[in-house]
Amino acid sequence: MKKMSISTKVLLFLLTVIVVGILLLPSILFPNHIDIVPSGSHEIQITLVTWEDKDRLETFTDDGSHRQVSVKFWYPEEKGYYPLLVFSHGAFGVMDSNASTCQELASHGYVVASIGHPYHSLFLKDANDKITLVDRDFLNEVYTDNGATNAEAEKRIYEKSKKWMELRSADENFVLEQIITMKASNEQAPFDRIRTDKIGLFGHSLGGATSVEVARMRSDIDAVIVLEGTMLGEYTGFENGTETFDPTPFPVPVLDVYSRDIYEEASTYGKAYVNFYLGSRATDYQYEIFEDAGHLNFTDLPLISPILAKKLGVGTVDPKECVEKMNQMILAYFNYYLK
Fold first, then answer.
1. For the chain, N or C: smaller number of CB within 10 Å?
2. Average pLDDT value for residue range 61-82
3. What is the model's pLDDT at position 147?
């Protein structure tokens, strides 16, 4: 199992839902949110910022503009010094895809920063109220060759995935450096509350892969959580019809989270699946399996829009119980390694 597959029919449905859901039927597709009340003692504040990376041109446009990355922060209202957690959403995800997780972590004394990757996000509303929709070419790239097993298609997938990871890891490194800079020079919340000596990364799907790659690059990351994501950043080349993997030990504790079906499928490949290859060489690798879950049960989507989530991939697990269990697992893991 090289990648997690999804059908072209789902793509067509997704595009239809974008148009219909946003413009015509929000009350049907996005009914009242099933609230998950944070269990921690801290009151939570939320801040949205948009930063311009003057070192990178925006490759999705041809107007010469620089790339702009938005970040939503959840953080304790009470002044203090709290570890930093950075979240990256999946392909076609959104900045709020795991808002319940971010709230839960913030309520227990973390500053949580969720990155909106423009043009990889289904839609993104930045701090200036500018709305950016997912790029059509990126949509096509993800679904073209998806699930293919021949060598030529595998090579194309490898080349595309390296491009995606380069963009996303640059976004996350930029955000981390901005936060560190703001911490050093800014006395306003949330930057006045951040401990930059305690940093964790986590993400869903492609965002999980991003978290692993950035943790490999940097020396200031203390722990990583991957929510059902293939670790594409660990690919180092393509030989004899398949990817080659980074053989050096992964230096950061990593928790690899799966639904049962995906874990069983991955297990048939053993160390030929990149996550298990990394796990066999990591200094600290653990995994967790969620029974009866689907790919999107590791986000808030089933709580926000059960109709859409069912079409895109959920299991039979109770969605609220699954998210609450996931949130407690994430909290416990980061507490152990960051606190």
1. C
2. 97
3. 65
Instruction: Write down the pTM of the prediction.
Output: 0.90
Is residue 337 within 8 Å of residue 252, measured between CB atoms? no
The owner of tokens 């993800």 is 142
Q: Where are the beta strands (DSSP E) in the chain?
A: 44-57, 66-76, 82-88, 111-116, 123-125, 131-133, 194-204, 223-227, 235-239, 242-245, 254-259, 285-290
Set out the domains of the chain in order of their start, with CATH numbers.
Answer: 8-338 (3.40.50.1820)
Mean pLDDT value across the chain: 89
Mean pLDDT score, 68-93: 97
Name the pLDDT band for 1 (thresholds 50, 70, 90).
very low
- pLDDT, residue 33, reads 57
Contact 285, 275 (CB under 8 A): no
Report residue 16's pLDDT band, with 50, 70 and 90 as the boundaries.
very low
Answer whether 131's CB lies under 8 Å from 125's CB: yes
High-pLDDT (> 70) share of the chain, %: 88
Q: Taking the CB of residue 110, how many other CB atoms lie within 10 A of it?
A: 29
Rounded CA separation 84/106 (Å): 10
Angle at 166 between CA 161 and CA 170, to 5 degrees: 145
**Which residue bears the tokens 């004899």?**
240
Structure tokens at 232: 């594409």
CA proximity to 237, closest of 166, 180, 155, 309:
155
- State how far the alpha carbon of 56 is from the alpha carbons of 90, 113, 122, 257, in Å: 22, 21, 22, 33
